[in-house]
Amino acid sequence: MNKIFFLLLSIPAALHAQVELRATLSNTILNMSFTKGNYTPYFYGGAAFGVASLGLEGELWLRKPRYLRGDSVVMNPKYFTSTSLEVCMFYSNHEFSVTGYSNHAEPDLMSSNAEIRLLQIPVILKGSAHISVLDENLRISMGIGIVNSIVLKSHLKEEARIFIRDPDPNIGITGWNDYSDEANTTKSGKRFYNSFCIEFSFGFKRLFIAERAWFSFTDMGWSDEADSWGVPKTHSIYFNAYDTWSKVTYGGGAFSIGWKFN
């Protein structure tokens, strides 16, 4: 019984030694890309649109570095490298705004605004080089993994002013019609998708800095709204782009600064 009690008490200490827990502040990027084959993609709202987000990370050591005395050991790479499994969690809210114009002399006016709220959970397998044999806490790392993403909310709002033009060019514009529509599009597209992820990171004692990039091939378009949309498709920036490029994918990444608290 005493041995079992001692074993149970030792589990938290063992986990503490094998797992690093970090809080992070990140600049999280989401790119909404309209793509089709080898054509140049259209980035709705522009590329590299970043927002500040808070996150939590845990890193489980699969194999720690082993430092022993003697040149024959120190020169062996397996003694100053390590592997680990990293699990992160990011919550972020992204807003996009786009304006457009028709190609008339007096152009029609168009605007489109979208909101996407995400919970993203990267799972990354990492290899680290501990670049100082005097301190195993100084390391640089590379990793690859999968980002599991959940769309918590998405919303689209669009407006257009279409001018009425007289066939006689001397008369020109005789009036206009205004169109607008908005909808919660959360259920119109996929709620879950996976992305391929790469990471480069640096750690020293409690400080952790990481640059991560991820991209997905899953079509995330809101096609269910297209037929009932209150803005004509010719003047809807989102649905006109979706018809032209035929696929919407989400990509991006995060630059993170973390602090280990265990």
**How many individual helices?**
3
- Please describe the biggest sheet, giving its number of strands, its sense, and whether it closes into a barrel: 8 strands, antiparallel, barrel
Shape: elongated
Termini separation (Å)? 30 Å
Mean pLDDT: 85
The overall strand count is 9
Order of helices and strands: HEEHEEEEEEHE
Q: What topology, given as strand order, has the largest sheet?
A: 1-2-3-4-5-7-8-9
* Oligomer designation: single chain
Helical content band: 10-25%
Question: Structural class, from helix and strand content?
Answer: mainly beta
Which range does the strand content fall in? Answer: over 45%
Task: Give an account of the 3D structure.
The structure is a single chain. With about 260 residues, the protein is mainly beta. The chain has 3 helices and 9 strands. The protein has helices at about 1-20, 70-75, 235-245, and strands at about 20-35, 40-65, 80-100, 110-130, 140-165, 175-185, 190-205, 205-215, 250-260. The chain has an 8-stranded antiparallel barrel. The longest helix has 17 residues, at about 1-20.
